[in-house]
Please model this.
Amino acid sequence: MIFAIGIVINALTFEKYIIPKDFKGVVYVITEKDFGQNREYDFFTRVFRIPESGILFTKFRQKSGFNNRKFYQIDNLGNLRELGVLDYRSYIEKWDVNPPKTEPSRDSLAVFTPDLEYDFKEKNYRMVFTVGKYKETKVWNYLPEEKIDSLKKGVKKINAL
Model:
């Protein structure tokens, strides 16, 4: 019994993602133990501060399991506003065969389809999601690897100084 409770507690993770004011686009949170952003906690909750680029290198190891994720947008005064989480597949498009009867607002700012992906090249997980309004978003959960690699080289160079 105690062993089972230990397994569940080990798999349970609380995460807070803080997104810059007016940011819209794709976010990648990538584990990089050598030069990633230092670990930050708010009690038991892991805190991820997303930079303007949308690509955060962190020393936190991403892991699959039972994740309680909250997403916030921060204003100039440091106030946090919680963002809703939606799935872009919940919207009705003309090509849908079995459309749902209702859909979320296309005008609301939200986090779309947070997903923990496995990166076979780096051999670890990374969190990917899109922030924006459904009707304005052109790309879902994708950034070219070249952009990520370029930013990684820049961060390594700054940390080497």
About this structure: The chain has one domain: 2-160. Residues 72 and 82 are 4 Å apart (CA to CA).
